[in-house]
Amino acid sequence: MYILRRGFLYLLLLLGSCCLANIDRLELVMPRYAVRGGDVLLKCEHSVTPEELYKVEWQKAGTKIFQYIKDRKPPYRYFPMDGAELNKANSSAKQLHLTRLTFAAGGSYSCVVSMETPIFSKDSESQTLTIIEPQEKDPSITFDKNTYQVGDVLQANCTTAPARPPPHITWLINGVKVDESLTRAFSNGRIHGHGYYEHRSPSMKQLSIEVSELHAGDNGELWLTCMSTIPGYIGPKEKYADERRHSIRIEVVMTEIPAEIKSSDNNLVENITSNRQPQLHPDHRSHFLLISGWLVCNLLFNAKT
Questions:
Q1: This prediction's pTM
Q2: In a domain, 18, yes or no
Q3: Most C-beta atoms within 10 A of its C-beta, which of 37, 97, 151, 285?
């Protein structure tokens, strides 16, 4: 009876310590993108002291790939992994160094930290790694002519260098992003069944916009820029894994009112610009009647003779 009571109290203490145990900070820090053939460093940052730490386990898609257990000799265990080689010399309980990456290395990663006293484990939030093959040169822009008038339709095509995944294209006019409704994207490769693209592919996007005076600015220049990036969008504090740009200068000719329309007679200008029949000035009307009468008399006289 005494033994049972003591065991029960020990169990209560154990359960109580487990409930009170906690790991205040646990975060897996790693880049979102890595280059095929390159390497990547994953860091497991936590608040557990070395005295309390028992085990750190690294996982890819829920499967163990590396493990550290304190006081075990040797403390590290390595597990087979597709798509990368583990740099053992640069891997520890705090970080994991993967080299010679292939597309199979892409996926979700996490780390699990366990305390020794009291016994407690916690998983980090998983992070996703994407393997890319970057562009080898800037995108190219093709268009009809170098000079446009206000009201002309500017149509241009941007084609990127091949990459994997195919780059995302963003059009800019004078440094301002163009509304996507004015663009048209074309096919940019096929996705493999495992979630990655089968091969390096270029991307192409067409821009069609009517040139306005606002595009010309004060100096009559329009700067057209094609930006090709992997990924297509990033957060405020993030950087593109791959970014290329190409810009061209286009001259915009301002449309002027023809000289014959300019007149001090406001009525005449108003009639012409509103497509109405212009009315003659009273002085002009009298001259017109005199000339018309002279022509009629002259024609009658010639007919009699």
A1: 0.70
A2: no
A3: 97
Q: Is residue 12 part of a domain?
A: no
* Contact yes or no for 197/164 (Cβ under 8 A): yes
From the list 204, 174, 177, the residue with the least C-alpha distance to 189 is 204
170 and 149 assigned to the same domain: yes
From 213, 228, 253, give the residue that closes a domain: 253
Between CA 56 and CA 67 the distance in angstroms is 6
Residue 275 Rama label (left phi>0; alpha psi -120 to 50; beta): left
* Contacting residues for 212 by C-beta, under 8 A, at least 6 apart: 150, 151
- Sequence-distant (6+) residues with CB within 8 A of 271 are 277, 278, 279
Query: What is the span of the domain harbouring residue 241?
Result: 140-253
Domain count, the chain: 3
Burial degree of 2 (CB within 10 A; 0-12, 13-18, 19+): exposed
Side chain identity at residue 78, one-letter code: Y
Whole-number pLDDT of residue 231: 94
**How does pLDDT run across 95-141, given as a tens digit for each residue?**
999 999 999 999 999 999 999 877 888 999 999 999 999 999 999 99
Average of per-residue pLDDT across 213-229: 86
pLDDT digits (tens, 9 = 90+) for 182-210: 999 986 666 655 555 678 999 999 999 99
pLDDT confidence of residue 274: 41
Please state whether beta strands 204-210 and 127-132 pair in parallel, antiparallel, or not at all (unpaired).
Answer: unpaired
Residues in contact with 164: Cβ distance below 8 Å, sequence separation at least 6, in sequence order: 36, 103, 132, 133, 189, 196, 197, 199, 200, 201
CB 272 within 8 A of CB 165: no
